[in-house]
Structure formats: C-alpha cells, structure tokens
Amino acid sequence: MSTKIFVPLTKTQTNWPTIEQECYAIIQAIEKWDKYLRGHEFILETDHEPLIHFTNKEQLNKRCERWRLKLAEYRFKVKHIQGKKNHMADYLSRSPVEIAEEDIEERPQYESTSTQTDLSFSSLNNNLIPLK
Asked: Is 38 exposed, middle or buried (0-12, 13-18, 19+ CB in 10 A)?
C-alpha cells in the first residue's frame, strides 16, 4: 500500500519547526491507517531527512516525545527519498488552496429527549428536536 496524505495545519502549527510539522503529518497518517499498519512492518518514505533519526534523538520537547512514544507502537523503517522525486508531496504541501473552517453557528443544533411511557415494557422514545 502506498499513500500520500495532505494534512492541513492550523495557524499555530505553521509556526512549528519543519521537523515537527513533518512528524505531525506522519502521526496523523499513521492514526488514519492504524488498522492496516498495526502489527505489520512498513516503510515510511519521507523527503525530510532529519526524520530518519527522529526516533533516536536524545533531546526532544514534550510534544515530540509524545509522538515518539506513539510511533514506538509500530514496526517501521524510515527511508529518505529525494524531494525532487517526491512530486505529489511537494504539490500538496505547497497547494494554494485554503482549507475552509466549518462555522459551528451555521449547523443545526439538536436536543435529545427521551420519555418512558410504560414501566412494565421499558419502552423508550428517543427523539431529536431542533433547538430554537
């Protein structure tokens, strides 16, 4: 299986060092494909060479240490590929398309209600009623 995933970053995440942005994308991809990867050895290809030694670094900040612990749950090897051979990843990371954020105010809000009509039959009626 070979896949490339575009992981949009928040404004705060765009200020992270490049290695953290790249590692975050890997964590997101591994979590998405967990059911296919867990228990199997796989090769993680990256054009960001410092990631090859990420799991062996001695000094990491707390965020990176959490990610390293998460990655320790998987059996994989990191393989460096030259950026010029990684066209799709470069295209996705430099895509000018902005990611639209969902406006929570525009979504319908629902309230859950339940009523019990007969104790001997334990019948419950669950209904969703739009809030006003």
From this structure: exposed
Residue 86 has pLDDT above 50, yes or no: yes
Mean pLDDT of 51-56: 76
pTM, full prediction = 0.58
Question: What's the number of CA atoms in the CB half-sphere (13 Å) around residue 12?
Answer: 1
Say how far apart CA 30 and CA 36 lie, in whole Å: 9
The string of pLDDT tens digits covering residues 40-49 is 999 888 888 8
Please name which of 106, 110, 104 lies closest in space to residue 131, comparing C-alpha atoms.
Answer: 110
pLDDT of residue 73: 92
Please report where in the chains the tokens 């960001």 appear, as a residue.
Answer: 48
Position 128 in a domain: no
- Cα–Cα distance measured from residue 100 to residue 110, given in angstroms and rounded to the nearest whole number: 23
More confident of the two residues 64 and 86: 64
Split into its structural domains, the chain has a count of: 1
What is the span of the domain harbouring residue 28? Answer: 13-103
- Under the phi-then-psi rule, with left for phi > 0, alpha for psi from -120 to 50, and beta for the rest, what region is 127? beta
